[in-house]
Amino acid sequence: MKPDENCLLQLPRELIEQILGNLSLRCIKNLRRINRRMNDLVLGPCFYSYFGQKSTNLTPSSLSSIEALMEDDVFGRHVRHIRIISETVAIDSAENTLATGLYHTAESTLTNLYGDEFFVQLDKPMSKATDEQLKKVAVDLEWMKAHAEAYEMAFRTEKEEEVVNRLAHILRWREHSLLDTIELDARFVDGPGLFSRPVARHIVDSDRQRLWARASQVYRLAMMAWARSGVAISSLLIYTNTTGCSVPSYDVTVGLPGLMDAGLARSSAIVKDLAFSFSTRMDHGWERLAQVYGQKVAAVERRRQRLHWQEIREEIDWQDMHGIIATTEGADYTTDDSDWDSDTEFDMGILDEKGSEIQGRYGDTMPQSLYRDNFPGISRLLQNMPNLQKLDLHMYQTLEYEAYDGGSRLHYYEAVFKHIVDAKLQFRQLKTLILRGLFLDAEDLLTFMRHHSGIERLELHNAMLGPRPGYSGWNNVLTTLCRSAVHHGTSLSSVFCSGLYNTSRTFRGQWDHPHNLLRSHEELKGQWVERWWLRSRQGRPVLWTREVLRDEFEHENAFGEEGGAQGAKNIVQWTPPAGLPMEELRVLQEEGYGRTYG
Length: 598
Prior knowledge:
With about 600 residues, the protein is α/β, with parallel strands linked by helices. The chain contains 22 helices and 21 strands.
């Protein structure tokens, strides 16, 4: 044995693990090949951690790879985390790049003085692509066309049962499985080994619509497989790390008839951590309904949409249309019959009408975006998770603004959280509640917190508060919440806020003029500047983000003054430091929470 090898063998185990932690898997594998003693040395927690998370895009080859790993007696037992990826080959986007000859700026990493990192891509300026860049896109396009059929074949309706069974088999491979996390993610395929985030600027609407449809389909298949496997996991992460792609709230349970009260109820009973990114209604395209919902549910969905389009042509007022949220709760809106089975001519007319829309988006007055079944899905899913310790809900806004009467229908999505409260769901072990991008009613938030006295931390990110008699705005609501926590001796010890909006019924989700969390005459803190929590509006400081701890709960204006973006009565003008990336921060917010189209 060489002297340097002998020295390595004599090191303490803890130090060896630190060394291995700074090496790539390839380097560690090369060390294993030196001899048996070196092989035994590197087989430790660091090496096995590389097998802790495995990914699959549900294609046959991908599933086979995980199956082979799970069969291995040494490595299979170390798999803890299964990541299921929704992928769409971005053919239309590559063809658009070749046609225009234009390139978007590359994604960049923002790092503030506090060390927080963010990834963002500005939408301009675009630059003329070089000949070399265009040749590379052309080569990648040919590869994508050659492989697109394989992607589509794996997800055809007749193949779904096979995919679900294989995935279920993987999830329950061992009798005493150590699997603790199922995660869903989504991305575009730009070529061999090339991937883009759903918010990538070069992606065109048609590809983006396909990815959202695929994401809902993969969600449905993954939930079916999980229910069929019967495996109990502690963490379920649904597109929570996927910027710009979610499960539309309508799709959460509509495509899973009967599943919520069957195997899924058993599997989800011990989930402790749920992070779920959902969105307002998305248009998956008339031709993809079977892909998204399955054949049986798609037939009902087509009937509903045909009826809606007939009502649109008859100029029926949107509030009186079939089954939308504004109509009487007790009415019967079933359409599961042949009355709206249509002919090809009728369906072609629908496609012509839909050509006026942004592809994949519904207008906020469209009956599909306001249909009552858009709202209870999250509540129906949560009713089977009584042991949650952490709940993280994120809403992504997709609606196209079309309310020419001056109103906006986005506020109807406050019904998502309202359904949770009205269902009187109880999570007795809940410690952390995180709400991102949700439209909230003040009384609903207060009621939920009152019924969950064990919550220790509340986080509100880009949350919208609708008007409510008796509550003047965010400071009023959060002050009431915190004082109640002190008075009743609940466990709440921290409230973290970032981007709070007091909204009217005409609010269009433009992410402008947030509530100012700065207190009157409060000294500005260096940490706020370093973390980009402090912004400027008309020369006055606006505190965008802050954390309020329990010892401040009874402060009169712990969450700033009422009065919109101006808020605090600070006489001193404030100029933001040079280099504050205001445009990048705006784009970052838009990427994470969506924007109003139109």
